[in-house]
Hints:
CATH topology: Arginase, Chain A
Radius of gyration: 18 Å
Helix content: 25-40%
Bound molecules: 4-carbamimidamidobutanoic acid, zinc ion
Order of helices and strands: EHHEHEHEHEHEHEHEH
Number of helices: 9
Strand content: 5-15%
CATH superfamily: Ureohydrolase domain
Amino acid sequence: MNRTPVGPxxxxxxxxxxxxxxxxxLPRIEDVDGxxxxxxxxxxxxxVSYRPGARFGPEHVRASSRLxxxxxxxxxxxxxxxxxxxxxxxxxxxPYHIDKAVRQVADAAAELGSSVSxxxxxxxxHTIAYPLLQAINAKCGPVAVLHFDAHLDxxxxxxxxxxxxxxxxxxxxxxxxxxxxxxxxxxxxGPLYGxxxxxxxxxxxxxxxxxxxxxxxxxxxxxxxxxxxxxDKPLYISVDIDVLDPAHAPGTGTPEAGGLTSRExxxxxxxxxxxxxxxxxxxxxxxAYDHAQMTGIAASHVAYxxxxxxxxxxxxxxxxx
Length: 321
Ligand SMILES: N=C(N)NCCCC(=O)O
Ligand SMILES: [Zn+2]
Ligand SMILES: [Zn+2]
């Protein structure tokens, strides 16, 4: 797509609080002639183990994204001016049948992925990372997964069920969807079921930068470890908003004390913009527990940084052609 991209509604003509709630007030995918980055919602939370409500995450993050502006000084880049970013609406996922929902998400993401360069997903609980990785694997092969989360999400089953929001990366690893030499969790903390969890996790192909490590050694050291592990592999970034401390993101289903600040998370993402990001999600925003849109705003800014990084990756690919 080399036409001039269609941007958001002009905030000097249409108030930011008026009009359709698309991500950042960008056009809908059906209103533009070709999209590079599709922002899609997955209002699904049948996989949760504790507080429900992430099904309302996509609409909350969109509503919290109305104040985003075109130029991102932290990356010195104007993503939606460089490439066409559009809102693809929501993927319909069966709320009563998790296996059907997973299939619907995988199929819809594969179809959307065939007509755009990159997908940025707004969840939804973390279950959806599993079918999203199925879709990205079909397009790009095994990807390095950089997973920002308080939790490992490599547990085996809950109530003997294999597909839940605590198990997506175990299923993905078992299915060969991820690069086991290049995947990593960032921001993990809090109680586990047992020491075995960490052994299983390592065997499934993940290494760890814990929340404590970030506090102890700082962002540059954390970034160096991430960059060393991911290298130039195609990279999928999955951000569970509960990676943030509950003080920064109370609106989520399984909060854990001692997390990253939103400033730290944004800095970490900004330190990865030259990597080969092929897809990303921001999940686990549950607005019923949010206050003053603080979780929604944090998630919308995370999505904005990811969108800017993806736009830069697309521009680099074009320049290399
Ligand atoms: N993916 C998220 N947010 N949470 C997983 C927690 C699973 C548990 O209750 O042990
Ligand atoms: Zn989590
Ligand atoms: Zn998670």
